[in-house]
Amino acid sequence: MLGEVKEAVKKTRAASAPGPNAIPYKVYKMCPLLLRRLWRLLEVVWRKGYVPEAWKEAEGIFTPKERNSKTVNQFRTISLLNVQGKIFFAILARRLTSFLTAFRHYHVDGHIQKIITSYLDGIRLRFTVGDQLTRWQRLKKGIVTGCTVSVVLLIMGMNLLINAAQRETLTRPIKCLGKLFDASLQDRDNVKKLEEQVEEGLKKIDRCGLHGKFKAWLYQHALLPRLIWPLVLYEVPITTVEALERSTSRHLRKWLGVPPSFTSIGLYGKSNKLQLLLSSLVEEFKTAKARLVLTLRDSPDELIPTESVSQAENELKHKDIVGVTAVGRDGIGARKVVLWSRSDQKERRAMIQSEVRRARQARAVEMGAQGACTTWETADGKLTWGDIWKYEPFRFSFLLRSIYDLLPSPANLCRWGLTEDPKCSLCDRVGTLEHVLSSFTTALTQGRYRCRHDLVLRELADWLEKERKKERGNYPRHGHIAFVKSGEAMKTNKPTKASIPDGTRDWKMEVDLGRRLVFPNVVQTTLRPDIVLWSETGKKLFTIELTVPWEARCEEAYERKKAKYTELMDLCKQQGWRTWIFPVEVGVRGFCSQSVHRLMTAV
Predict the structure, then answer these.
(1) Which range of residues forms the domain containing residue 428?
(2) Do the beta carbons of residue 533 and residue 509 sit within 8 Å?
(3) Which one of 266, 301, 364, 556 has the fewest CB atoms closer than 10 angstroms to its CB?
(4) Nearest one of 397, 364, 398, 395 to 380, comparing CA atoms
């Protein structure tokens, strides 16, 4: 009817952008004769059931979501359709709405189904970016923005789902988007099922015939991923999640062969000196909730963030105020620091999730015995699952116990109430783990510490021997020639820093292993460094002095050994030699200090 066409055109905005044929609504608003002509064309389309191809074409345009948008993720697309097709399908949508409201069922005539199907199946798009125009592309999934009939079709589909749900009995839960809804509309029963799922999963893993470290792998990669989604969907109290973590931690301690007193920081800490690839259920729960809050908060909806997210944001903003600080012997700028004020939205989301996981580190600092590793002056170590599988069971258990001071030393046995005297049986000093591993005079005189030192020295000497035999040219090697296209800027690579052995090939090495080391014929001295490398043609010489101290005393050992050999290096310099001294420390439990990385970088 002509009245329907006039009503549809009247509701449109005259300033709306036209489609590919560049004809706006304003033409039909201002020209009644053209409007009548359009009405006759629409009648023909309705009668024949054929949708013109021009109505299926849409111009895609990228519009920014925020200021200073640069990446594709910061834009959304809008589609500009020809106004003739939008008027036609607006009338069709209005008739469908009246029909469905009046008869309350969803039987649509086959003729109308044919019109809608032919329209949605044949939509094509092309995009304009600047002065570039893409080819026409057929839309295979989804709908274009601005489609006037798609809203009614969506309402029809949703009503079908709602009516189907109303026919279900109240005793049978309804599942929607992975979440179960029962008659109470509460999550109490779902939380109980989650607890049963955790207990049943732990029992199945515990009863299998695999070794403990493989059981830990099954927890990390089979059970834990199944729990994260229910924890996000349902309103689970944090006390319940903590209770579930206590249960999982109890099994993990049993599988890894550590005592029940082994701290959960050793299992799940991400900033420990030795990091295991195990995830805390509480931390993953908080991180998943924080990720959900960030997703909702960054959307147009107004939501108040949770306490964990707000606390993490405040910590990151406080770090911006404090600025970049030095850590240990690392100079300012040695580590990459990402500031909150200079980060984009994606980086901030990752920083907040990382900060939520770091909450366990604050608890580790408060612990006296098992948190003592936070004061070590060594580099952090991270074990992969491949590394864990290579360990013998008791050796891996010994490693974890030694790091967190849970080995049965005399002092620990006394603290646990198993003995009365905490003193060492061979001397009058308190038998702490530090005393046994690095300060026991009897072990020193018997050569136990020397044997451990020589084992580490042999590994270091083997690596240096491989480096010494490498072919090193006198001139820097040039890479391939990179051709630059017209209008593009040339990418500059950072120059590679030259190492000490570069430029000379007659390097010789002496190691204080098996026989007494004799210092090269540069100066006369009675000192015996662990390793000496020198080149007579280049007149270069550097010494390496290895120490295997208690991890907390690496800095002290570095300064002591450096002062010991400084005078010797000065005498060599007086003879015209270029000298370097590298005191290196590898802790009694195998953790390397920064001096080891400094040596490897220099060589």
Answers:
(1) 408-446
(2) yes
(3) 301
(4) 364
